[in-house]
Amino acid sequence: MKKKKRGFTLVELIVTIALLAIAGTVIAINMVSLNKQQQAKEKTRIESAIKAAAEAYVNKENIALNQGLCISVESLIEQGYIKESEVSDYKDQAVSVTISSDGKIYNISED
To answer: Of 93, 89, 104, whose CA–CA distance to 55 is shortest?
Structure first.
């Protein structure tokens, strides 16, 4: 009588490990891509909040924009136009908002 073999052959184990390694690599690459996309969306959201706060500042303070305006995010936080929690990524950086004389073009720069 022939004895039945139990277990896997070496070739089967190597193929299985290779397939798992390939799948793991694909998953890791996708996770990095998703993380970068999420960071870009968060930056866009924060910049939109800063722009809205700068616009509210200009409107409420009735500032004439003949020469344009440069205001720091720290000033917007201190004056209550934006919450510190909304701009957490910019909290420890010197960031200014430049508004052109037409009041429509904004530039957010990290100094």
So the answer is: 104
Name the amino acid, one letter, at 9: T
Count the Cβ atoms, other than its own, within 10 Å of residue 96: 18
pLDDT in tens, 55-82: 888 778 777 666 667 777 888 888 888 8
Q: How far is CA 31 from CA 6, 25, 39, 47, in A?
A: 38, 10, 12, 24
The per-residue pLDDT for 21 is 96
Closest CA to 85 of 38, 56, 46: 46
Q: What is the pLDDT of residues 95-106, one digit of tens each?
A: 677 776 666 656
User: What is the DSSP-derived secondary structure letter of residue 101?
Assistant: T
Residues in contact with 102: Cβ distance below 8 Å, sequence separation at least 6, in sequence order? 65
Which is more confident, 28 or 49?
Answer: 28
